[in-house]
Design goal:
The structure holds two protein chains of two kinds. Chain A is mainly alpha-helical. Chain A has two domains: 14-53, no CATH class; 69-277, Orthogonal Bundle (MetI-like fold). Chain A contains ten helices and no strands. Chain A is globular. Chain B is built from eleven helices and 20 strands. In chain B, the strands form four sheets. In chain B, strands 6-7-8-3-9-10 form a six-stranded mixed beta sheet, with helices on both faces. In chain B, α3 packs parallel to α5. The longest helix of chain B is centred in the middle third of the chain and has 18 residues, at 180-197. The radius of gyration of chain B is 26 Å and the shape is elongated. The N and C termini of chain B lie far apart (77 Å). The chains are: A mainly alpha, B alpha+beta. The A-B interface holds A 168, 170-171, 173-181, 184, 188-189, 192-193, 195, 271-272, 275-276, 278 and B 64-66, 85-87, 91-93, 95-97, 99-105, 107-108, 112-113, 115-117, 121, 125, 142-144, 160-161, 164.
C-alpha cells in the first residue's frame, strides 16, 4: 500500500484510530491480567509489579488456599468434553436430517433456535425449579449438562447448516452412482468432506461449555465448574492467584483452539501426503 | 482376494428404452418430462439437446437411477430397471462439475467404485492405474483433484466412471466447465473413447454444434417433449419444424401464406409481400394456410438493392437492411433485417463478400434457388375465412 500512503483520506486515520482503540479495549485488560499473574510474592492486586514470581500459580494447586480450582477445572473439562461429543453427534445428525424437507421442519427449526434467544439465567432458573419440583438434586453432570446443551445445540446446528449449505450433493450422488451404500456414502464421502466443519462445531461446543456461566450457575448443584469457582474467588480471594487462574484458563482455551485448528490443517495435509504414500 | 473378476461387471447390452415416461416434481406443476418415448441403440453416441429446463437432464438422471419416473418405464438391454438402484443398472454417470471427491487422491477417486465393492487395495489400485494410463494421467495418480486443471479433472471423472465397465455412460454437460479450446479437444476425445469401448454414451448439452459434432443421434427437446430425434446430419440438414430449425441454427426459417399450389410447389406470400416457392415433395397444403420452410444460410446470395426495387415484385428473395456483419474467417455472417421480426442470416463466402463488402445499414436483396427450401411440418391456418375455403 506504499503508493496510496501519500494521499490517504482523513477517514483512513479516523477509522484506524477507532480500530486501535477497539483492539486495546479488547486485549488490554487481558494483557494486564496476564502480567499481574506473575506478581512478586509481596505484590498486590494492582500495579506496580512488586518483583516477579510464579508463586500464584503454585497456590492454585494447593488445596484450600484459593478455593477448589483443581477440582472445578477437572469438572469443567469433563463437562465440556461430554457437551462437545453430544453437540457434535446431535448437530451433525440434525444438520444432515434437515437437508430433507419434512412436515414440521420449519416449526422444529424455530423451536431449536428459540433457545438461543432466551436469557440464559432464566433457562438455568427454570431448570433448577423443575428439578426442585420433581424432587431431584441439581448436579453439574445432569442439570448442568442439560442447561449447557440448550446453548450449544442450537449454536452447533446453525454452524452445521452453514457447513452443509456449502456441501455439493453431487458428491453423494457420485458415490451412489459408484455403488456406495448409504452408510458407505456417509463414512467415505459426506463426513470426510464435512470434517473441517465438524471440528468447528466441536470447538464451538467445547469453548461455549468451558466458560458457560449464566445457564450453569443455578444448575451445577453443590460442586462448581471453573467459571463458577472463579466468580466465587473474585468475591473472597484477594491475591494475584485470581489472575493466575485467568492466565491458566486462557492458555488452556488457546491450546484447545490450537489443537482444533491444527488438526484441521493436519487432516488436509495428511490427505495429500497419505495419498502419495500408497 | 481375486478382485480381478468380481469387481468388473460384464459388458451387457446398452440399448436404452424410455417408455411413456412422465416426471412431475411438484403436484400440479408442469411435468419436467412429459409422456416421452425414446430408444437409443446399443453402442451409439446420443446427445440430448435443448435449452435449460427442457427436461434433458431429468431424463439422464432417470436413466442413471438418480430420479424415479412418476409414470412409465426405463429399460436397459431389454430389462426393466425403473426401480433398480444406480449400481444395479450397469450405468455410470459423469457429473457436470465432475464431483471428484476432494479429500481423495486421483488414484483413490478412480478406485472408489472398486473399494465400495470390497476389492483389495492392490487390485483396485492396479485397475485404477490402468484406467489412468488410458486417459494419460498416470503421472498424476497421487495428486488431489484440486491440484489438477479442468481438463485433467474431466479425464479423472471419465476414468472413475469407466472403472466398473458400464454398458452405458451418462454425461451431464461434460464440457461446460471447460474453456473453448479444451472443449473442442475433449469432445473429440469423448467420441474416440466411445468408439473404442463400443458402449452407449448419452450426453446432455445445450450447445448445438457440440451435439452435432459428437453424436450419432441427436435428440432435440423442448418443454419435456422430444421435438426431433434423428442422426446429427439429418438434424442439421432436415430439421422437422421451425423450433428445431431455429434452435439448431445454420438454417433460416421462412414463412408465408399459401397463395396457390403449382408444379409441386406452394407459392406463398411472406409478411413483407414477397413471394416464395416451397417445394412440397408430395405434401398437401391448402391455400390460406401459413406454411414454414427452412433454408440453409450458406445457400443465400446477397446483393445490393437498386433503389427502384419493390418488395412485392421479389420471388424467392426478400429486401431488407444489413443488421450485423460478423467475419467468421472462411465466410462472413450477414444478418439481414426484413422488418418482420424473424432473424435472417446469410453466410457469404469470404472471397465473394470481400469483392464488394456490404456495410451495416445497406439496403440489400437476399435471394436463393427455390429447390433449397424445405417444407417444415408446422402449419397455421391464417384466417377463419381461409380455413373455410380450405375445407
Amino acid at each position: 500500500m506504499r503508493t496510496a500512503s501519500g494521499n490517504r483520506p482523513w477517514t483512513f486515520y479516523a477509522l484506524a484510530s477507532v480500530f486501535v482503540l477497539f483492539v486495546l479495549f479488547l486485549y488490554g485488560p487481558m494483557i494486564v491480567i496476564y502480567v499481574l499473574s506473575f506478581q512478586g510474592p509481596q505484590g498486590g492486586l494492582t500495579f506496580p509489579m512488586n518483583g516477579f514470581s510464579t508463586q500464584w500459580f503454585h497456590e492454585l494447586v494447593v488445596p484450600g488456599r484459593s478455593g477448589d480450582i483443581a477440582g472445578s477445572f477437572r469438572r469443567s473439562v469433563i463437562l465440556a468434553a461430554i457437551v462437545t461429543v453430544a453437540t457434535v453427534v446431535i448437530c451433525v445428525a440434525g444438520g444432515l436430517g434437515f437437508r430433507r424437507r419434512f412436515p414440521g421442519a420449519g416449526v422444529l427449526f424455530y423451536l431449536v433456535i428459540g433457545s438461543l434467544v432466551m436469557p440464559g439465567i432464566f433457562v438455568g432458573l427454570g431448570i433448577s425449579i423443575g428439578f426442585q419440583l420433581l424432587g431431584w438434586q441439581t448436579d453439574w453432570t445432569v442439570s448442568g449438562l442439560g442447561a449447557q446443551l440448550t446453548w450449544t445445540l442450537p449454536f452447533g446446528l446453525l454452524v452445521m447448516f452453514a457447513v452443509i449449505g456449502r456441501f455439493n450433493r453431487s458428491f453423494e450422488e457420485a458415490a451412489r452412482d459408484l455403488g456406495a451404500t448409504a452408510w458407505q456414502r456417509t463414512r467415505e464421502v459426506t463426513l470426510p468432506i464435512l470434517l473441517p466443519g465438524i471440528i468447528g462445531v466441536a470447538l464451538f461446543g467445547f469453548t461455549l461449555s468451558y466458560d458457560e456461566f449464566a445457564r450453569t450457575v443455578l444448575t451445577a448443584g453443590s460442586e462448581n465448574t471453573l467459571p463458577l469457582e472463579i466468580w466465587a474467588m473474585t468475591t473472597n480471594v484477594t491475591s494475584p492467584a485470581l489472575f493466575a487462574v485467568g492466565t491458566v484458563t486462557t492458555v488452556i482455551s488457546f491450546a484447545v483452539i490450537g489443537i482444533g485448528l491444527g488438526s484441521i490443517a493436519l487432516i488436509q495435509r495428511r490427505r495429500g501426503r497419505g495419498a502419495a504414500s500408497h | 482376494m481375486d478382485g480381478g473378476t468380481n469387481v468388473t461387471g460384464p459388458i451387457g447390452n446398452g440399448r436404452i428404452e424410455v417408455v411413456a415416461v412422465t416426471k412431475t416434481y411438484h403436484a400440479g406443476a408442469a411435468p419436467a418430462v412429459d409422456n416421452l418415448d425414446l430408444r437409443i441403440e446399443h453402442g451409439s453416441y446420443c446427445c440430448l439437446l435443448g435449452p435449460s429446463g427442457c427436461g434433458k437432464t431429468t431424463i439422464l438422471r432417470m436413466i442413471a437411477g438418480h430420479e424415479t419416473p412418476t409414470e412409465g418405464d426405463i429399460l436397459i438391454g431389454g430389462r426393466n430397471v425403473t426401480n433398480l438402484q444406480p449400481v444395479e443398472r450397469g450405468t455410470a454417470m459423469m457429473f457436470q462439475s465432475y464431483a471428484l471427491f476432494p479429500h481423495r487422491s486421483v488414484l483413490d477417486n478412480v478406485a472408489f467404485a472398486l473399494k465400495m465393492r470390497g476389492a483389495s487395495k492392490t487390485d483396485r489400485h492396479a485397475k485404477a492405474r490402468e484406467l489412468l494410463q488410458k486417459v494419460h494421467l498416470e503421472a498424476f495418480a497421487n495428486r488431489l483433484p484440486a491440484q489438477l486443471s479442468g481438463g485433467q479433472q474431466q479425464r479423472v471423472a471419465l476414468a472413475r466412471a469407466l472403472i466398473t465397465n458400464p454398458r452405458v455412460l451418462l454425461l451431464d454437460e461434460p464440457l461446460s466447465a471447460l474453456d473453448e479450446y479444451l472443449r473442442l479437444q475433449m469432445r473429440g476425445e469423448l467420441r474416440r473413447v466411445q468408439r473404442e469401448l463400443g458402449i452407449t454414451f448419452i450426453h446432455v448439452t445445450h450447445t448445438q454444434l457440440e451435439a452435432i459434432a459428437v453424436a450419432d443421434t441427436v435428440v432435440v427437446m423442448a418443454q419435456g417433449k422430444i421435438e426431433q430425434a434423428a442422426s446429427a446430419r439429418d438434424i442439421f440438414l432436415a430439421p422437422r419444424n421451425a423450433y428445431v430449425t431455429r434452435f439448431i441454427g445454420g438454417q433460416n426459417v421462412l414463412s408465408g401464406v399459401v397463395e396457390r399450389v403449382s408444379g409441386g410447389a406452394a407459392i406463398a406470400v411472406t409478411g413483407t409481400g414477397a413471394r416464395i416457392e416451397i417445394p412440397l415433395a408430395g405434401t398437401e397444403v391448402a391455400p390460406g394456410e401459413q406454411v414454414f420452410g427452412s433454408l440453409r444460410r450458406d445457400r443465400v446470395a446477397v446483393r445490393r438493392r437498386d433503389p427502384g426495387t419493390s418488395a412485392k415484385d421479389l420471388v424467392n428473395a426478400f429486401a431488407g437492411e444489413v443488421h450485423a456483419i460478423e467475419n467468421q474467417g472462411s465466410y462472413v455472417k450477414v444478418t439481414i433485417d426484413a422488418g418482420d421480426g424473424e432473424e435472417f442470416v446469410a453466410n457469404v463466402l469470404d472471397e465473394d463478400y470481400f469483392v464488394d463488402p456490404i456495410d451495416i445499414g445497406a439496403p440489400v436483396v437476399a435471394s436463393w434457388p427455390a429447390r433449397e427450401v424445405r417444407l417444415l411440418e408446422d402449419r397455421r391456418p391464417r384466417h377463419a375465412g381461409a380455413m373455410a375455403a380450405a375445407a
